What does this fold into?
Amino acid sequence: MIELAVFGAGRIGQVHALNAAAHPSVHLKYIVEPVASDHLDRLAMQTGAMLCEPETVFTDPAIKGVIIASSTDTHAALLLRAAQTGKAVFCEKPVSLDFSTVEDVTNEVEKTGVACLLGFQRRYDPDFRLVRERIVSGQAGELEHIVMHTRDPSPPPRNYIERSGGMFRDQAIHDFDMARYLLGEEIATVYAVGNCLIDQEIAAAGDIDTAMITLTSVSGRFVQMVNCRRAPFGYDQRLEALCSREVLYVENRPQRGVMIADAQGFHSSTPMNYFIERFTGAYRAEMHAFIDMIATGSTPLATIRDGLEAQRLAEAAIVSMNTGKPIQFSTDWHPDAEERR
Amino acid sequence: MIELAVFGAGRIGQVHALNAAAHPSVHLKYIVEPVASDHLDRLAMQTGAMLCEPETVFTDPAIKGVIIASSTDTHAALLLRAAQTGKAVFCEKPVSLDFSTVEDVTNEVEKTGVACLLGFQRRYDPDFRLVRERIVSGQAGELEHIVMHTRDPSPPPRNYIERSGGMFRDQAIHDFDMARYLLGEEIATVYAVGNCLIDQEIAAAGDIDTAMITLTSVSGRFVQMVNCRRAPFGYDQRLEALCSREVLYVENRPQRGVMIADAQGFHSSTPMNYFIERFTGAYRAEMHAFIDMIATGSTPLATIRDGLEAQRLAEAAIVSMNTGKPIQFSTDWHPDAEERR
Amino acid sequence: MIELAVFGAGRIGQVHALNAAAHPSVHLKYIVEPVASDHLDRLAMQTGAMLCEPETVFTDPAIKGVIIASSTDTHAALLLRAAQTGKAVFCEKPVSLDFSTVEDVTNEVEKTGVACLLGFQRRYDPDFRLVRERIVSGQAGELEHIVMHTRDPSPPPRNYIERSGGMFRDQAIHDFDMARYLLGEEIATVYAVGNCLIDQEIAAAGDIDTAMITLTSVSGRFVQMVNCRRAPFGYDQRLEALCSREVLYVENRPQRGVMIADAQGFHSSTPMNYFIERFTGAYRAEMHAFIDMIATGSTPLATIRDGLEAQRLAEAAIVSMNTGKPIQFSTDWHPDAEERR
Amino acid sequence: MIELAVFGAGRIGQVHALNAAAHPSVHLKYIVEPVASDHLDRLAMQTGAMLCEPETVFTDPAIKGVIIASSTDTHAALLLRAAQTGKAVFCEKPVSLDFSTVEDVTNEVEKTGVACLLGFQRRYDPDFRLVRERIVSGQAGELEHIVMHTRDPSPPPRNYIERSGGMFRDQAIHDFDMARYLLGEEIATVYAVGNCLIDQEIAAAGDIDTAMITLTSVSGRFVQMVNCRRAPFGYDQRLEALCSREVLYVENRPQRGVMIADAQGFHSSTPMNYFIERFTGAYRAEMHAFIDMIATGSTPLATIRDGLEAQRLAEAAIVSMNTGKPIQFSTDWHPDAEERR
It folds into this structure.
């Protein structure tokens, strides 16, 4: 049995704790969560895990891996401590809202050689994986451009926005990651426009709710991204990859399999409402990959460096939006250097 | 140029007259229509045809073919006269509402050797043809059973019902024909149930508005038919052919290509509303086939005998419904013999 | 905590055991399974249940309910024993392949007053429930007719067929139940035709693989059923309910949300492959309903009498198919009486 | 009867000639086409029009309107001559590949007061019109952003590319027009990237085959455009308008209504192949609007000025692509001024 601990018992922490505990080779030993609640007690009961302090986890030599699903501002320190104590890490994105911190932690963690899976769960979704497989295998032909739509069901509350790092770092980062994953090469230019068109609370918090982003890859291929904090019908999470032989579409999954027809037409259901539901299978597969990484040394689909590079794109998009100019981008690009220009 | 004449300038007569006149090898010379109207004048102008009496058509040696789209009670006499005068015939179904008359006219016409295309336009529809091709070619594997849905957009008026011969002879006859066309063999048993569930005017006219029909072929394969005088969303005309390697579906064609999504779900348009619109391409192809039959002697997809055999199935379904018993059917079966049993 | 026991640890027994064990108010205490296996050991470990003999269950006063998911030939005896010992019952259909036994057991169990939920899981599926709700609430208007398609992904092995009671008792019984559930009234006539068109092993076992069934309700409404042991694309489980204002469709749920487009057209995935996967949510909801029935005395959506009445329809369909005649049906109808006619 | 003349009898000229001739209030008197062909003779026969020289048209006082569908390099002179002689004009886009010429001709034509409909047929398509109506009426809520996909079925031949003015002026111009039409306001910034990824013949002709364009409107709303010279499945012409209450999608229309299901999944047909087929109804409606404009003085949906403004956006996109910079755009923007910067 592989012994694991989870940090954080919020919405996504619960998903990870239950997935870990349900795995036949895992013993979920600890849950670390500073805020007591009925939810927490029930989670402990369902998983059989003990509640404890962070250091109990790090000083227990039986613990082989930790799952970091606590609030963003705790990620960096927990990651470093896990790396120092030789625990494999599953870390929810982002490592930090501060890019330089992400860069430093990434370098530190990589130096220790500790394996780290970064929670870009979309890479583990069977639909997105199928798209990737048909591109990588050559079945679909040459990938020429990608169009992605990510729209939340409704604007998050202002206090979420304020702690989120902004729409590019919080939401679009998954699309930046998917762009890199499918292109298999780095990005050369980033252009972004954004505005607050939906919810003035978001503007008041200094953020945007609608953005259009264009990426050009080093070899001259393109990615168009639409990011938005609302779709009238719910969660909109789609991708279209135009290749020379095939177009690959990841479509929304409907909540219901009932179609209703009447004098107005044919009516089908809204999509699965939100990422916890839409990516149920992806979160499970991601946890299995983490366990497999510990057990067999397999490489995760998303590493801490993938997190760094996606966040670098988010930073560039922010600078592009703020300056109104396309950014000449590379993996050497740094937001601070840009500001000094 | 092939010179043709049209009998009848009602809704379907207009379709045929315009399709004939638009054909580059055809001169539509005459329209025969006893009832004067603005519609008729416009049709004459658009097609360049002259209005005339029936005998003008039959005694004009330049006329190579006639299109019979007048009221059902005139079909038999026009067919016989056309056969006597050696004009090729395109005849709308049915030849007559009286089965023995259909039988007699069919035998007479066949004796003259005059070519006759019967207006089962669905055989000429590209979608139904594709289904047939994949079955005949073996691509789809062995055909095992067929499910057909035919539902009108709304119940026809009582005076239409009264002259229609009843739902089996008027509407289901197209499905009986399609069953024979796709099975490529004759029917061994017919079972039908029917009721008036939608519009009591139809019951008052002695007809039904809903029927379920089961056919078993000579080799033991099955056809399920749903026939109805209303679908809440409009015209419902679908087919599903289960074969050993493929299932082939003919689906409804939407009126509009717009999808609207809102908080209730995804909304697409009602289907093309009614056969004139749905089978635009089929009517054109059918006319081209008629012209080709005259020009080259090609065999039409539906002959007067196909009309007779589809109507025989309709008669058997009526007897089955009225007696509550399945009918042991063959091409020798006759409704009068059944009644004498 | 409600203490429960499961009889049978085959495919469906495992589903029920895991669903019961995952419920926060349930302690799954026992599993009864005569055949040892690794699967069984793992199930015991995952659920925390003890393996034991049947009588341990029946003589343990702490056990409030039993889940009968063992082989069909054991259902009747277990049901009766549970009823005698006052345990609430969740029983997989059928109670017995012998109709008189079903009748007797139903009467016996009802006499004891013990609550019994019969495993027609489709009644608990959210899609089928939505259809039922829109009919019952009047939103859809008057229900006029129903068309159901049930096709297995591929023919079961011969030894399954031999123990199954035949396609009507084994597969179509769910559709007979759904017909009764949605119509909300009893059936007046049953007509069935069937044949072995797909797999001659099935004919050799004395069964059929394809059937068409027509039901007429007491008030004159209709149900068309297509039942088949294979669909080329996998599991086909659909329903279409034509009502006066709406048509309600339960559609297949696709396995994947990826669409692939190429020069041949647009390609989407096969449906969820088979009932365990398709009805995951229904099985969970059904177990919750069983637990709620024990906890609060609520009425289950399907009772042992619903099982009896669905099976009576299956018996009538068999007689219809064998005699070639429609059956005049009522809840008094009995296959033995029919044979004596 | 309104007497009209058509200039040009190529593919689109034939469509317009037939639509004009089929209209009950129109007499198509002349066709002007310098190149003799069988096609031309058949068109003359089908429409009843005479072949003649340009000046015959302009000096015939009976001619009320002219349809300019000849090669692009003849548009400007014919437009000006029609305006001088007081003939209403239906002109295919573009007026000229040279932007200053478009500007001059637009001003000249407007000065004469002659009515001019510009052939942005998409504005007349019932699907795009429905989208516009739901936005204008407020039903859909506030329009926030638009995503458009235009992909040709396959790269055009090199000699077409060479005379086309490039992908932005030739293909994307319809999308620029649709953006203006739906937004109902002018554009403030234009950003475009493009590349030749599909067909090196296109690069050799100095053009691109793939482009991504982002428009920001004066009020801060967005348009994303994907333009491409190939889609593996054929003609891809879609639009998605995100509004506050509804998302409106214009989808591709399938060629066939047949779905084929097999062990690999569900297969539906490719879309209608190319604009002549896809926009059959739009071309007819556009001609009716032209005739109505002549008969009643109604305003066309697209004027010569709309053509100028769409082309201005195309010019800006070209400059953006070539300079790698977003363009600060207004209706005063001019490509020459930009070059002088």
